[in-house]
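Notes from hallway chat w/ T.B., transcribed later so I don't forget. T.B. wanted the structure written out for a chain they're using in a teaching module, and asked if we could keep both sequence and structure tokens in one place. Agreed to drop them here.
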Amino acid sequence: MPIATPKQFAAMLDAAQQGGYAYPAINCSNLSTLNAALKGFADNKSDGIIQFSTGAGQFASGLNHKDATKGTIILAEAAHALAEQYDVLIGLNTDHCQPEKAEGFLDPLIEATAARRAKGENNLFQNHMLDASILPLDENMAISKTYLKKCAEHEIILEVEAGVVGGEEDGAAGSEDTPDEDLYTTPEDMVAVHEALAELGRFTFAATFGNVHGHYKPGAVKLKPEILKQGQAAVQERYGDDAEFDLVFHGGSGSLLSEIRETLDYGVVKMNVDTDTQYAFTRPVAAHMCENVEGVFKIDGEIGNKKVYDPRSYLKKGEEAMAARVGQACDDLLSVDKTIVKDV
């Protein structure tokens, strides 16, 4: 099945919202991680989201160039080709893009989708994230309005954020010393976001409720999912049930399963997964090196063992393990066996 069309991606979000589940959004940076994500979704009969950060784009473009836009387009085109082999729906998203990077990153990606549409082809991306959360809310909404209009013109959904996700990961806006009060989106903030954007096009909203980027032991991150409930209630009380947000959960590593599941009750339809899948990929690669050290290295003038230093020998193990971790994310978010591929 090719990458989801805009109509299909919208139907995915609607199905998750109505069905009380969410999609793992898996960060990928190369063909191995792309294939792992696709395998994980397909093996679990779950639709899903694959996303690329600016850092992933830089990496994919090659060490001599580090061109985030070119690398991201290459990854997206590869995803379109690879996804045709699977019978699930996949949406493509770009992750955190700060305001100062938007003109050089989001604009050319939107133009790439426009060029595809002009030829009668599917959107390159179904979803882009503009992370202006580092700005005061009024400035955040001003630039978000600009990009939502640009995206809506091409049936692209914009993801916005108000409140800062703590920690740091691949250029995300937060920092380790982000003040606690900035980690929580208020009901007033959520009402303001709705009022600023609702009439311009469809968007998803990464409201913050104590989430922190990075890796933590279970229970170490102090989430307050009730903030999402309170914010949704404030918006719906003023603007009706149809004003319910499609919410996005960032910084989920270290969250309790009970907290993850609770957010589904409050409108979360997408949860970003990066740190955990990175570790899942790397762990068996490291084990391979340790277990085959005499073959991987040419020690004391020996010739090593080509079968174990061939990159495919260990990348396959990483891909398999990452696919399994994607499956766990599908189970955590209750998306297993819920593909809508035959319904749209």
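Follow-up for T.B.: The first helix runs from residue 6 to 19. Might be a good example for the class.
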